[in-house]
């Protein structure tokens, strides 16, 4: 069976920088608290009406296509991961296709929050492995700032999230032991309400009303400590699952790219794997948690920094709402 490999990556970061100090003016928080608990120094916020979810996705996609030496017309299929689509439906894959000028090809949205990009990459990989498509565009994009409760009540979540987009172009290869070696996808819906946005949702008629808005049920809720505890367990577990499936050990890894949820989670993962700090990528200080966009943005920056070379063994791993968690082991 043939494999799929990443031949281009790209990112789009919104222009507006929002520092911790700026957040201090909106809610009862402090730069010291945010840095100490999360490692975040600043994040970027998309501009209303201009930097939309699908438009940012298209900019990241164009950069990824440039690196791949391809044009949008070379793409056979789109897999688009986001928790913040511009509409309740359709998902953002369809409007992004219009920005890229390639109507007609299939576009599938993936709703797996922080784990979305790893799920999307796994789906794209399978489409290529089975021979259905040759070139698949995988995008993760988020506009979080329009959905945050920026009062003190919402501070635990509001200080963490940021906006941005990342993309990867996946193409077929006949090279054995190259590209995506395996993907490992998990979910446990028992914990859906520990990290969620309840409204709008079809369980009530109508999907959202003034009471929901007044009660703040339209904002993300996170049981932070509970999520943290699960994350520090599931990240190493799913990375070891990928290593074991391919007969590798942690010391064989050239780089781990975890979803950027919290610098303390990343440090815990590094300690559990017992690998040097430089082998676990981190850029959360600049962007906060950009959910489905964090891994493709991180891959792009790791490549810019020369941390991923031909033949590098790279593990992507994520944990988030659902709960969902997943990994992907890649021989570059
Ligand atoms: O993307 C994947 C899913 N997300 C995650 O993986 C995130 C996982 N969770 C976390 O990263 C951490 O739990 C947080 C960063 C969200 C919170 O850190 P924590 O060390 O778990 O703090 P905490 O929730 O236990 O809160 C400690 C204190 C509380 O005050 P009291 O009760 O001790 O008086 C909070 O009210 O810090 C308070 N607090 C804040 N203070 C200043 C909560 N948020 C803030 C804030 N600024 N933004």
UniProtKB/TrEMBL annotation:
It is an enzyme of class 2 (transferase). Gene3D superfamilies: 3.40.47.10. It is found in: Cytoplasm. GO terms for cellular component: cytoplasm. Residues 108-189 form the Beta-ketoacyl-[acyl-carrier-protein] synthase III N-terminal domain. It comes from the Bacteria. The last Arg residue of the ACP-binding site is essential for the weak association between ACP/AcpP and FabH. Catalyzes the condensation reaction of fatty acid synthesis by the addition to an acyl acceptor of two carbons from malonyl-ACP. Catalyzes the first condensation reaction which initiates fatty acid synthesis and may therefore play a role in governing the total rate of fatty acid production. Possesses both acetoacetyl-ACP synthase and acetyl transacylase activities. Its substrate specificity determines the biosynthesis of branched-chain and/or straight-chain of fatty acids. NCBIfam families: fabH (TIGR00747), PRK09352.1 (NF006829). Homodimer. Belongs to the thiolase-like superfamily. FabH family. This is Beta-ketoacyl-[acyl-carrier-protein] synthase III. It comes from Caldithrix abyssi. The gene is fabH.
